[in-house]
Amino acid sequence: MPAPIRLRELIRTIRTARTQAEEREMIQKECAAIRSSFREEDNTYRCRNVAKLLYMHMLGYPAHFGQLECLKLIASQKFTDKRIGYLGAMLLLDERQDVHLLMTNCIKNDLNHSTQYVQGLALCTLGCMGSSEMCRDLAGEVEKLLKTSNSYLRKKAALCAVHVIRKVPELMEMFLPATKNLLSEKNHGVLHTSVVLLTEMCERSPDMLAHFRKNEKLVPQLVRILKNLIMSGYSPEHDVSGISDPFLQVRILRLLRILGKSDDDSSEAMNDILAQVATNTETSKNVGNAILYETVLTIMDIKSESGLRVLAINILGRFLLNNDKNIRYVALTSLLKTVQTDHNAVQRHRSTIVDCLKDLDVSIKRRAMELSFALVNGNNVRGMMKELLYFLDSCDPEFKADCASGVFLAAEKYAPSKRWHIDTVMRVLTTAGSYVRDDSVPNLIQLITNSVEMHAYTVQRLYKALLDDISQQPLVQVASWCIGEYGDLLLSGQCEEEEPIQVTEDEVLDVLEGLLASNLSTPVTRGYSLTAIMKLSTRFSSVNRIKKVVSVYGSSIDVELQQRAVEYNALFKKYDHMRPALLERMPIMEKTATNGPSEIVQTNGEAEPSAVEAKHPPPVAQPANQANDLLDLLGGNDVVPVIQTSMPTKPASAGGELLDLLGDLSLSGPAPAPSVPSSQPPFLLDGLSSQPLFNDIAPAGIPPMIAYNKNGLKIDFTFERANPNPNVAVITIHATNSTESEMTEFVFQAAVPKTFQLQLLSPSSNVVPALNQGSVTQVIRVLNPQKQQLRMRIKLTYTHKGSPVQDLSEVNNFPPQSWQ
Amino acid sequence: MRFLLLFSRQGKMRLQKWFMPLTEREKKKVMRDMMMLVLARPPRSSNFLQWRDLKIVYKRYASLYFCAALEEHDNELLALEVLHRYVELLDKYFGNVCELDIIFNFEKAYFILDEFLMGGEVLETSKIAVGVSMEEADTLQEQTMEEYMSKPAY
Fold it and tell me: In terms of CA atoms, which chain A residue is nearest residue B49?
């Protein structure tokens, strides 16, 4: 059997292959040869074969059949064998394979070998890929080597110990005694690895950290070493561009950071050296800046005095102006970390940061964008937004989504005026409309609804935007919704903010119908358009045209559209008397704060009973329309009921609230007092009875209670937990009147003890009909963070039979579940 | 450091050192991602980029890209120095190192790396010490008279 070819010859041969297929062929041939050689248990050439296998592995070919061979090499007496064997183990084996445990014994023997390079190999392998079992078995050996005077072994043992601790943190204790005099070494390798080991221990265990601070007086030792490094003369073997051992300096600074964090004494002890490093380090080369960077991070993290902090921020400011991109990037990253704590100091560099938005480097742009958003506040919001919107216009697509979300958030927090807010949101929708997150549509709709005075302006601007471009779906959806709502304002040309445009009904309907027909519109958008057209039937006079459109879509292929059209048709035909009330203007929606782009602020639609939509509507905003329509209907006249918007994790909860308002429309659960006005058309129930959802809605499980019952006025409380916050109890009051005459000007007021917070929403009406023919409902939210027993004092005022009545009462009989 | 990769402009892997346990499949994916990200960078960009939760530091030396992945608390600027030091060590050992040296003597590149880094941390900060260790270890090798590995004659 001829000797297997040498490694280098193989490499040369493989490199001559001109195609992938040729290479594969050569490799397969060689692998076959190697495999048979392994089978023959050939000791002489095992090393050569494994080496070749490793090369082929690096090219991407499978080499698992060499794993056991590596173990055999490790067990060999020859150094060359061991070297390749350990390398093979590190490349081919990992802790997932059971095979690796077989190494343990070999490593143990080699850790005690007479040759330090063999010991080194064993430590290296253990320290790179040792599994937890191996580490447990061999920790003792490592600990022994940590105490040796041989610096070559000591440094390796230190890093091996780091790995052991990472794998098996419980073993940390056993290395403690060995660390005692690690720092008194002169050898830089040992010093460096010791600092790494100490860092690892301090990071993992607060006890260790305290121990090193107090008992070992680590800080003065480190300060001394650092000082020596800076002050000492030129040392050729550690010098990097005039700086002595920057690696060690940086690691010491990092350990100092951990020691000084939240500890006044330690921080004070290191103040001087930090100032010295910060001012004396040469900044012309990268290495100096690396040290400065670490210094700045340390200064910002410990309890440094203000002068030092200012020094640090100024260093970062200088970094920002540096020509070197890496340094600018690093500066932006650090500023991002400190912007929360040292906001004002960072603000001073705002203009430089904003300039970085225009940098060509992608990484820098991203950091600059994040930092810019962090710096927006009430004072600079206009200027910053201008820059950020300009950035949004011109940036790469990968940034657009995040930038848009950031703009929305900042606008919401700091908008100086409603008009500015709407303009800003519109600008985002027109420039980056396809990248905004899904919930921006309902958020914007809510914003628009709440800016009552801006309705005319908004609808006009949106209409004009539609004329330009109908491809950006979020914009189109919002625009359709607005036109549906405020189309009358558009026609009447009432806009104060800008030049009113002249449109006719037909033009508006043309646009909306165009959306319905366009290929660019998604099904969701089409749904919006159809509903908008329908709503205009009560605002425009071209009812016939609208009827026609609606009937056409009654046979649409899209099931969603078809259903809507059919129901709208029904509205025209059978229930025309209800149409005006149903399609009335939307009430103002109560807003909960948006904390982030992922929040859904609207009442979620699934559980909504709706006159016109009986199935699950996919888009969130849509059902809110229907819900509001319904409330309009129930509330009767002009009184605007306020919907409590919450963040439902299940849609059912929102439906539950609605249920309360609707009273006994719930087909499940305990029935609250009858509160449905007698004018309730059967149509609604028809719509509802097909709703299996209501059976799924679990009531909160808290029994309702009678809070007040006097002089014919009875007030019931029903309970529910607000989903996002278990400390908030949502109580709905139902006021009914059993006397013969109605109670008008009914006002319900409540007060709670200091530890609670109360929020009273608008009542459904202020007339409690006589003879229990209806009820007034009102929602109360009580925040009870301390989970104390709920108590309430209520005051009732109303006019009965011509004379005013007022009464005060205490409510103490809250069921325990309502406040626990 | 979590891993260190060396690859050529054509996407050929020349060295891969992993400091975290990954399956073969995961390693392949990471290598593909790294090559894609780094090779796509325009010429005058910064040497840093963000990938998943790691900071990637890369530097090009002649035809080879040196690519390291750092954790959140690691110093990127220092990592550049680490990469540079490794190149210097290779240069000292091979004498004007080029990609071919690393291809034909990949095992030695690994040995040098193992004298410089361990478990992702710097093991030895002295330029001289690493060279001395390598020389002594090599002597041990030649003493055992294995012929298949011979230092290239210059």
Answer: A363
Give φ, ψ of B96 to 5 degrees: 50, 65
Q: Are A247 and B81 inside 8 Å of each other by CB?
A: yes
Closest CA relative to residue A662, chosen from A619, A691, A620: A691
The closest of A575, A526, A572 to A548, measured between CA atoms, is A572
From the list A129, A188, A329, the residue facing B125 with the nearest CB is: A188
Q: Please name the residues in contact with A588: beta carbons below 8 A apart, sequence gap of 6 or more.
A: A449, A450, A452, A640, A642
Distance between CA atoms of A28 and A51, rounded to whole angstroms?
16
Which candidate from A11, A247, A286 shows the least CB-CB separation from B122?
Answer: A247
Q: Chain A partners of B149 at a C-beta cutoff of 8 Å?
A: 7, 51, 80
Q: Say whether A47 and B122 touch across the interface (CB within 8 A).
A: no
Helices within A636-676 (DSSP H only): 651-662
Mind listing the pLDDT tens digit for each residue in A579-616?
Answer: 887 787 777 776 554 443 333 333 333 333 333 333 33
Alpha-carbon distance of A51 to A6, in angstroms, equals 9
Identify the burial level of A268 via C-beta atoms within 10 angstroms of its C-beta, where 0-12 means exposed, 13-18 middle and 19 or more buried.
middle
The H or E element that residue A743 is part of is: strand A743-751
Q: B67 to chain A nearest CA, in Å?
A: 15
Q: How far is A59 from chain B (nearest CA, A)?
A: 7
Q: Which chain B positions have a beta carbon within 8 Å of A78's beta carbon?
A: 144, 146
| Higher per-residue confidence, A757 vs B136 | B136
DSSP three-state, residue A130: coil
Residue carrying the six token digits 């007339």: A767
- Interior CA angle at A764 toward A758 and A767, to 5°? 115
Secondary structure string (H, E, C) spanning chain B: CCEEEEEECCCCEEEEEECCCCCHHHHHHHHHHHHHHHHCCCCCCCCEEEECCEEEEEEEECCEEEEEEECCCCCHHHHHHHHHHHHHHHHHHHCCCCHHHHHHCHHHHHHHHHHHEECCEECCCCHHHHHHHHHHHHHHHHHCCCCCCCCCCC
Among the partner-chain residues A117, A159, A254, the one whose CB lies closest to the CB of B123 is: A159
| pLDDT in the model for residue A635 | 34
Token pair in block for residue B59: 């530097």
| The pLDDT of residue A721 | 65
Predicted pLDDT of residue A254? 94
Q: CB count, 10 Å around CB of A578?
A: 16
Cross-chain Cβ contact A117/B13 below 8 Å: no
By CB neighbour count within 10 A (0-12 exposed, 13-18 middle, 19+ buried), where does A166 fall? middle
Question: What sign does the dihedral A488-A492-A496-A497 (CA atoms) show?
Answer: positive
Identity of the amino acid at A331: A
Measured distance CA(A569)–CA(A562) in Å, rounded: 10
CB–CB of A791/A755 below 8 Å? no
How far away is chain A from the Cα of B152, in angstroms, using its nearest Cα? Answer: 10
Overall pTM > 0.80: no
What integer pLDDT is reported at residue A680 of this predicted model?
36
Chain B interface, best mutation among A23, A80, A162, by max B CB count within 10 A: A80
* Chain B residues near residue A293 by CB distance under 8 angstroms: 75, 77
| ipTM surpasses 0.90 | yes
Query: Which regions of chain A are under pLDDT 50?
Result: 593-700
User: What was the pLDDT predicted at A670?
Assistant: 39
| Chain A residues inside the 8 Å CB shell of B128 | 236-237
Strands A775-783 vs A792-800: parallel, antiparallel or unpaired: unpaired
Q: How far apart are the first and last CA of chain B?
A: 34
- Rounded Cα gap, residues A478 and A244, in angstroms: 63
Mean pLDDT for the stretch of residues B104-122:
94
Q: Chain A: nearest CA to B130, how far in angstroms?
A: 10
**Rounded to whole angstroms, how far apart are CA atoms A481 and A535?**
9
